[in-house]
Design brief:
Blueprint lengths: L2 H4 L6 E8 L5 E8 L12 H23 L7 H15 L6 H6 L8 H21 L6 H12 L31 H4 L9 H15 L8 H15 L6 H15 L11 H5 L2 H14 L2 H38 L6 H12 L3 E2 H8 L3 H13 L4 E2 L8 E3 L1 H8 L2
Antiparallel strand pairs: 1-2, 3-5, 4-5
Helix pairs in contact: 2-13, 3-5, 5-6, 5-10, 8-9, 9-10, 9-13, 12-13, 13-14, 13-17, 15-16
Length: 399
């Protein structure tokens, strides 16, 4: 880490760290310790405030659209998968979106795809807990991290606990080829120990506190995301958990009523700017650039989510109109369309469970909708064959 960049940091300080090299020998260096978040908003530029206002307006429009729809929760599963694919890609694990949308999150053996789809499971648990009014404790966050890395190589690295080891982030430009990782890193987060755990616990409390009148919810979410990433409390999964916490915090603060917001697609397309803006808070205390970037991301992500939600609702209505023109009159057929809109691909058993009917009945109903081109087989497998509504996937893959 280029220590000189952090020596005059107005929001945090350098702390000494030391350790041993694998082949013997000792090293001494510095880590960056961000200040705890305060109870007032940082001073921002007028431009940043305008972007915060735009973000609030876009989030309000997304909520207004969700409230007009009969069941906005239908779109939650696809949102989680879109976010899973993008948030993993930001961390260097890329899986094609079509593959992520088609996979069964509970039955994947491929380690790379498992890593991506673990996010879907984590998001479902996290938002179910939020809907039940359960807060985010340190132990709950550790449980989510354990779920996130389950079945991946990272499961062996201090899974489900605050990291007990020093870690480094990235590699700084211009670092000599033979430089040891701790000194070649772009950023070195705080050392492990009780202080790191205490700071994370304080951050969880801060994120769930009511800052009304002091800090705009969008600004508060940006501040918390910076703090979480700067602390980097886990050995793996910090970026994915941190971006999940953005939406959870907006939901908890009442800015969002439905969790159909995916933020990582926008950040992934601007990953260098994303990491630079975060680092700028640590090195220069530049909250305006970071919060402006963050608010732009929320606004454009909210608009994309709203557009996608309206497109899926239109497909849902069109498929039901198409159904009306067939001789199929069972109420379960309409419910199956709803299920197909919310679940990008599915098996007979999954449809049967969702509709509360037997597998044989679900198979007959699916075959009927396939014969009228409302549904279609997704693959040619004989075992656990999957089906989908092609127009739903067209919307999701359109970006």
């Amino acid at each position: 880490m280029d220590v000189q960049l952090f020596q005059k940091a107005p929001f945090g300080k350098l702390v000494p760290i030391s350790g041993s090299l694998p082949g013997g020998g000792a090293w001494d260096h510095w880590a960056f310790l961000p200040d705890p978040l305060g109870e007032v908003s940082p001073e921002l530029s007028g431009r940043a405030y305008r972007y915060v206002g735009d973000a609030r307006a876009a989030l309000a429009a997304l909520d207004a659209t969700a409230q007009r729809l009969p069941n906005p929760r239908l779109f939650r599963s696809s949102t989680f998968r879109l976010e899973a694919q993008s948030t993993a890609a930001l961390e260097g694990t890329y899986e094609p979106l079509a593959r992520v949308l088609a996979a069964d999150s509970n039955d994947v053996q491929d380690p790379s795809l498992r890593e991506v789809l673990n996010y879907v499971i984590v998001a479902e648990v996290a938002f179910d807990n939020a809907e039940d009014g359960r807060g985010w404790s340190l132990s709950a966050l550790e449980d989510l991290q354990a779920m996130l890395v389950r079945g991946t190589p990272s499961e062996l690295d201090h899974c489900g606990q605050i990291r007990p080891v020093q870690v480094v982030i990235g590699r700084r430009e211009g670092a000599p080829p033979g430089e040891i990782p701790i000194k070649a890193a772009r950023y070195v987060p705080p050392p492990p120990g009780p202080d790191l755990e205490a700071r994370l616990r304080d951050l969880m409390s801060w994120m769930q506190a009511d800052h009304t009148g002091q800090i705009d919810p969008v600004v508060a979410a940006a501040m918390a995301h910076y703090e979480f990433e700067a602390l980097h409390p886990f050995h793996d999964g910090n970026g994915r958990l941190g971006r999940l916490l953005i939406v959870l915090q907006l939901y908890a603060s009442g800015v969002l009523i439905e969790t159909t917001l995916s933020v990582s697609t926008w950040f992934e397309a601007r990953r260098s700017e994303y990491y630079d803006a975060l680092l700028g808070v640590s090195t220069e205390g530049d909250w305006s650039t970071w919060i402006e970037f963050f608010a732009r991301g929320l606004a454009e992500s909210a608009e994309a989510a709203r557009t996608r939600m309206l497109a899926l609702a239109a497909v849902q209505a069109d498929l039901k109109a198409q159904l009306q023109a067939t001789p199929i009159r069972t109420a379960n057929a309409r419910l199956l369309i709803d299920f197909a809109v919310g679940q990008p691909t599915f098996t007979v058993a999954q449809a049967a469970k969702a509709l509360g009917i037997g597998n044989a009945g679900a198979k007959k109903l699916i075959d009927s909708l396939v014969s009228h081109a409302i549904l279609a087989p997704y693959d040619e497998r004989v075992y656990a064959r999957r089906f989908h509504a092609p127009r739903v996937l067209e919307v999701l893959l359109a970006g």
